[in-house]
Amino acid sequence: MGIEEYLNKSVLIADDLANMREDLIKILRSLGFTKIKEVHDGKAAWDELRLGAHYEEPYEIIFLDINMPRMNGLSLLKALREIDFYKKTPIFIVSTENEKDVILRAIIYGATDYILKPYSVNIVKEKILTRLK
Fold first, then answer.
1. Does the structure show a pLDDT above 80 at 40?
2. Which letter, b or e, does each residue of 37-61 get, where b requires 16 or more Cβ atoms within 10 Å of its Cβ?
3. Which fold has domain 19-66+73-120?
4. Are strands 61-65 and 91-95 parallel, antiparallel or unpaired?
5. Other residues' Cβ atoms within 10 Å of the Cβ of residue 5
């Protein structure tokens, strides 16, 4: 099973740092993803994700930074897991936070996996292939 079956899926990236969003977008595009939307904070992500669910076109893969203004990634993750459309959606937490308690809290809240910044193509690809089975 390869990455090809996931390339048509809609992806949302929520990160307050433009360069981090750009880096992840470049990696995803290099892997072949084309349906990528980016937002700059947690509240914008919440609005976008709720809108997608409302129109029954939810995002199929989500990347959330932890430290964002207006709504942090862990709060957003917890809220998303309460919406039927996003209960089983792959949600990857992306962060520079590498403390075990933060990573554990992300997993407890329902994160599919945790990706440390800065990104590498191989790690992102490996996480996607491993977790999207």
1. yes
2. ebbbbbebbbebbbebbeeeebbbb
3. Rossmann fold (3.40.50)
4. parallel
5. 9
> For the chain, which residues make up each domain, given as ranges?
19-66+73-120
Angle CA 69–74–77, to nearest 5: 110
What's the token pair of residue 100? 């075990």
Of residues 33, 60, 31, the one with CA closest to residue 125 = 31
Looking at residue 133, its pLDDT comes to: 67
Tell me: the pLDDT tens digits for 56-78?
889 999 999 999 999 999 999 99
Decide if pLDDT at 2 tops 80. Answer: no
